[in-house]
Amino acid sequence: MEQIYQKVENGSNEVRKAEAGTKMSRNLKYMKTNYQLYLLVLPALILLIIFKYVPMYGAIIAFKDFNPLQGIMGSPWIGWKNFEKFMSTPDFMDLLKNTLKLSAFGLIFGFPVPIILALMIHRIKRVSIKKNIQLVLYAPNFISVVVVVGIVFIFLSPVGPVNRFITFLGGDSISFMTEPSYFRSIYIISDIWQFAGWASIVYLAALSNVSQDLIDAAKIDGANILKQIRHIDLPTIKPIMVIQFILAAGNIMSLGFEKAYLLQTSMNLPTSEILPTYVYKIGLQMGDYGYSTAIGLFNAVINVILLISVNQIVKRLNEGEGI
Questions:
Q1: Which of 37, 66, 250, 261 has the greatest number of beta carbons closer than 10 A?
Q2: CB within 8 A of 48, min separation 6: which ones?
Q3: Rg of the chain's alpha carbons, rounded to an integer?
Q4: Is 103 helix (H, G, I), strand (E, B) or coil?
């Protein structure tokens, strides 16, 4: 009986090997037939490997007492000491809270804005007006972060337009850039102004595929604009919304370092000091490369955990809805 089972198992293995060989030959044949597509992708793949995968080798210094004169491999191995040092520092919780709060609030308040803009622009019928509005909304995306921060400082300075308006109404001038409580609002609002219009493009592209027959049928049934948006537009862009939300949640710890650093002043550090700015100061200004790399690696691991968690949550919600 055992011999029979052994023969059956050997036969199954041979069948699986044959199927694998057939599949591989089909893939090779497809690659030979469509080699132009692979040549088209090759430059992007090379750039991805050079700038994304090769630098991962440098993450080793997070586990070493790195000395530039000794090199990566010559520096002594210290294991988890850099991570323990970071987690035991008094600034650890403040840095983590500041980063999470700024990212979470930015996601909560910033994520719906491109969707709302896309829904509003999609409802504009006159093409000329629609194009002009899109031009105005897309323009801030092409402004340098340095210029945006300069505009923010000018507008919110003690003698700027905002404070002049406040004093005109009888209020007192507010020092926006030195008050820690205003930093997150300034960062998030300026971010929405700069990127929300450009981010609405992907939703507008999806809304362009909405069938006019569905809209006409909804109008005949007495559906107003809000009901049309709820039952036609939102279901159309829902898959795009899910993908965008997963990507945004996965980058929740990857804040824009440039804007946060440029908006920093010595007075607003209690809320403006986040992990990316801390890594810059420790690594490039103080020269502690191993310690700063450990902090950056910790940040990346948190990002991966959040990405996987959000992806699983969204997947289960979609399965529950039968999608």
A1: 66
A2: none
A3: 27
A4: helix
Q: How many other CB atoms are there within 10 angstroms of residue 86's CB atom?
A: 20
Q: How many residues does the chain have?
A: 323
Distances (CA, A) of 156 to 133, 186, 229, 257: 26, 9, 37, 21
**For 273-297, what is each residue's pLDDT tens digit?**
998 899 888 888 888 888 888 988 8
The domains found in the chain, sorted by start residue, are: 81-145+187-320 (1.10.3720.10)
| Residue 154: predicted pLDDT | 92
The region of weakest confidence among 1-15, 113-127, 136-150, 221-235 is: 1-15
Q: Tokens 């809304």, residue?
A: 207
Residue 109 has a CB neighbour count (10 Å cut-off) of 15
Q: How many contiguous H segments (helices) and E segments (strands) does the chain have?
A: 18, 0
Determine phi and psi for 26, rounding to 5 degrees: -65, -40
